[in-house]
Every structure is written in structure tokens, then in C-alpha cells.
Model the fold of this input.
Amino acid sequence: VLIVEDHEFFQRSILSPLETEPAIEVVGTATSGDQAIPLCRTLRPDVVLMDIRLPYEDGYGALKKIRASEKLRAIPIIAVTAEASTDQMNKAKASGFDGFLGKPLDPDKFPDQIRRILHGEAVWEFS
Done:
């Protein structure tokens, strides 16, 4: 799992529940969309958890660039955002994200959501 999140609090809230899951490995973190693109090339994560509002390159811009690469376009990219609403979820879906998780994440449900994503299930949840 590659985590792309610019706020330290939210990055920690994503990272902490996953650190105790032996079947889930966090391979890296980035704080902007422009950092995420080269990390996807070098790390080849099984899934990317991408905040939408990021400095320098937002999640939508980074998604578009990752999808433009033939070698990277199959990586599932999940929007993770505090702007959790049906409208935002629909916008993420129309933009090509593979799933949607609203912040704040539920630490009891979150590891299972990631396991489901890693097993190919589409997860579109924000409450």
C-alpha cells in the first residue's frame, strides 16, 4: 500500500491501523501528488490510497498521470478525502478512481476495507 496524504494527522490515522495487520504492508508514503507518481513507478504498490486535496499536484492530477502510464494504469487508486459526500464520491468515480473512503476513517473498519480492496473488491464508502 502506498499512502499519499499531506496532513501528518491523517497520514498517521491511515498508517497506524495498517501497521498491526500482518497481511498488509505499507511500502511508502508521499505528501503530494507529484511525489506519488515516481513512487508508483519504483515501488509498484498493489494499491494507492490518495488524498484528493494535495499540494503541488492534487489527487485528480496525479491519478490522470498515473493512468497515462501503461505500466501503472492497472494499480487500484482509492480516493481518501475529508470531503466525503455523494457528490464527491461520484466525481471521484467519474474521474477514474477505483474506490472512495471518507475521512475520518473508522479504525475498526479500515483494515478490512483495505483487505477487501486488495482482494479486488470495489469499496465506495464515506460514513
Q: What stands out?
A: The longest strand covers residues 77-81. The chain has a mean pLDDT of 95. DSSP finds five helices and six strands in the chain. The radius of gyration is 13 Å.
